């Protein structure tokens, strides 16, 4: 793996677009000043990757934070997602336009299918292929797709997904899925890298905290990157946003990566992609 040494770097997607290693997640961030302040702080600190979704109900605030920052749009990697109730061909085209309007942007860098809604995600993907061909999206991908979902989608598509955003942390590694995505040129990305904070209630990281003189959060995020996984920790706290980016001046030993891998117990904080009802 190439050296991961600065916040400005990223993994290169199959179509040549660079996706920054580290992004700011905005799930459950309030659409008012909370999310716009967080986005502005992150961008002015050097982040270039912002992740939102229509269901988060904060795209307007994200767009406001982008406009209030000192960063040119061309330097950013902005992501949103089509929600389940908006899936389908025409519905997705409409949902995408609405997201752009709320964000007040002319294009997205990445657009994802949020969940694999049976009987709908193929038509949703067809609409995303159209938007990609029209250069309204620089890259297209999926979220919460397991191997069989990916196989099914790729068997009926012209453009294969470039990203798969999954719940990922030491208690839910899913190495076989990571390997499958790698084999097929699909960039793996982590949501909920801290198990919505539950990881901090467990002392499994204490020896590594002492060894590397880093926080548990920094160790987990560095673990993500060394696994080749893009990560998007959510925070609205200015100092935590800064601290989450302080992960480029050290490297975990292979033995410590293997230790964190060994903690995998298939534990989810979110729904199972094979069993969700929304």
Structural summary, described in words:
- The structure is a single chain.
- 36% of the residues lie in helices and 13% in strands.
- It is an alpha/beta fold.
- It has a single domain (19-261), classed as Alpha-Beta Barrel (TIM Barrel), CATH 3.20.20.100.
- The chain has an eight-stranded parallel β-sheet. Strands 1-2 form a two-stranded antiparallel ribbon.
- Helix 6 (175-183) links the parallel strand 8 and strand 9.
- The chain starts with 9 loop residues before the first strand and ends in a 17-residue tail after the last helix.
- The model has no long low-confidence stretch (mean pLDDT 96).
- Substrate binds at residue 114.
- This is Aldo/keto reductase.
- Keywords: NADP, Oxidoreductase.
Keywords:
278 residues, alpha/beta, TIM Barrel, eight-stranded parallel beta sheet, two-stranded antiparallel sheet, 10 helices, 10 strands, 36% helix
Approximate helicity band: 25-40%
Please report the total strand number as a whole number: 10
H/E topology pattern: EEEHEHEHEHEHEHEHHEHH
CATH H-level superfamily: NADP-dependent oxidoreductase domain
Question: What order do the helices and strands come in, and which of them pair?
Answer:
Layout: E1 10-12, E2 18-20, E3 24-25, H1 33-45, E4 49-51, H2 59-68, E5 77-82, H3 89-103, E6 110-113, H4 121-133, E7 140-143, H5 147-154, E8 163-167, H6 175-183, E9 187-191, H7 206-212, H8 216-226, E10 230-231, H9 238-244, H10 254-261
Parallel strand pairs: 3-4, 4-5, 5-6, 6-7, 7-8, 8-9, 9-10
Antiparallel strand pairs: 1-2
Helix pairs in contact: 1-2, 2-3, 3-4
């Amino acid at each position: 793996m190439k050296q991961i040494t600065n916040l400005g770097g990223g993994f290169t997607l199959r179509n040549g677009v660079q996706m920054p290693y580290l992004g700011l997640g905005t799930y459950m961030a309030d659409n008012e000043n909370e999310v716009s302040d967080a986005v502005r702080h992150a961008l002015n600190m050097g982040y270039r990757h912002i992740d939102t979704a229509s269901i988060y109900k904060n795209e307007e605030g994200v767009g406001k934070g982008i406009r209030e920052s000192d960063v040119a749009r061309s330097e950013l990697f902005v992501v949103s997602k089509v929600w389940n109730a908006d899936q389908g061909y025409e519905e997705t085209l409409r949902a995408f336009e609405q997201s752009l309007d709320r964000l007040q942007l002319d294009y997205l860098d990445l657009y994802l299918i949020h969940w694999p809604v049976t009987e709908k995600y193929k038509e949703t993907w067809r609409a995303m292929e159209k938007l990609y061909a029209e250069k309204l999206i620089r890259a297209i991908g999926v979220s919460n797709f397991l191997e069989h979902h990916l196989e099914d989608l790729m068997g009926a598509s012209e453009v294969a997904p470039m990203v798969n955003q999954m719940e990922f942390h030491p208690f839910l590694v899913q190495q076989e899925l990571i390997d499958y995505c790698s084999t097929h040129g699909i960039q793996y990305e982590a949501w909920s890298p801290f198990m919505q904070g539950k990881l901090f209630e467990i002392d499994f990281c204490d020896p590594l905290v002492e060894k590397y003189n880093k926080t548990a959060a920094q160790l987990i995020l560095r673990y993500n990157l060394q696994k080749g996984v893009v990560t998007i920790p959510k925070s609205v706290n200015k100092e935590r946003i800064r601290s989450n980016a302080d992960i480029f001046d050290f490297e975990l030993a292979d033995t410590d990566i293997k230790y964190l891998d060994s903690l995998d117990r298939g534990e989810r904080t979110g729904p199972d992609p094979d069993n969700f009802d929304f």
